[in-house]
Amino acid sequence: MIAVHIPVLLKEAIEGLLEGEGKAFIDCTVGTAGHLLELLSQTKDDVMVIGIDKDNKSLEVARERLKDFGDRVTLLFGGFEDIDTLIEPLKPPPIAGILFDLGMSSFQLNNPQRGFSYRENGPLDMRFNSAQSLSAKELINESSQENLLQLLRKFGEDKWSRRLSRVIVERRGTEAFETTVELSNFVRRNIPRRAAHKTLARVFQALRITVNNELENLKTGLVKAFNLLKIDGRIAVISYHSLEDRIVKNFFRILKEAELAVTGHQRCIRPSKDERMSNRRSRSARLRVINKRAELTNQMILNEYTELETVHESDTEGNE
Ligand SMILES: C[S@@+](CC[C@H](N)C(=O)[O-])C[C@H]1O[C@@H](n2cnc3c(N)ncnc32)[C@H](O)[C@@H]1O
Known about the structure:
By secondary structure, this protein is of the alpha/beta class. Helices cover 43% and strands 13% of the residues.
């Protein structure tokens, strides 16, 4: 039996979405359909639910799990950064709620062949969409030292980025990196033992974010989702690290300041202690929900958002 992903902040996210009335909802990150199943179970038969994911293997599992819901649910293969063109042919009723549950699922992480985990041996892949050409292997073996440094710093925020980018480029001059374990053993050998776990998590995070262009896609997806939403509709976003959360927080803040939306909660919602204990992946999760009040017509507002720096530029390698 396939181990599906345990949905994070399930009750809270679905509650947040369903506070608004409506006949159509979108799950932008279906995964193995944990949230989508709950959304379908809690809505009436005349409510249409659209699910999007750029991972065909996850969609296969989702399709099987959702088969009892018949034509109430439509699954679409693609990226949420294209949400507008993806859903257009379906001509759905006004969209009442849109969910983003960011990053990767345990279904992806736990499959060594996908290359997401530094604990498992597999090819250096990390693509959500296996049809995409750029993989982690190309990134690590072909990026310039400067580009490697930038991506490790920006998306991993690790203090060993400078040293690692230098030694990675030296080593691949004689032998290319092929597998996750080759890379993780190499990283371990080049940093202090006490830093290994955190640094490995950060290096793998940085590669995954870059391979999948995650932060730019999130920025685009959020704006398009807001434009698709009906007035009084809701967007709920679950993020797992500060780079994602910063984008969501800034976008929601800008909408609030422009009086285009209100937030239900002063702060983000975190998993309960019970959830954190029973599902380790939930530990870093943050849920933010916004309620749309007016259309985004002023391009100036968007300019502020798209130009926002999501990256800490400070050089933290002083201790290296
Ligand atoms: C945390 S999982 C979602 C898990 C899901 N909520 C569940 O309960 O099973 C994130 C999913 O988003 C997908 N994903 C990531 N970026 C995406 C994008 N830009 N467009 C569409 N899907 C994306 C990944 O392939 C992954 O399946």
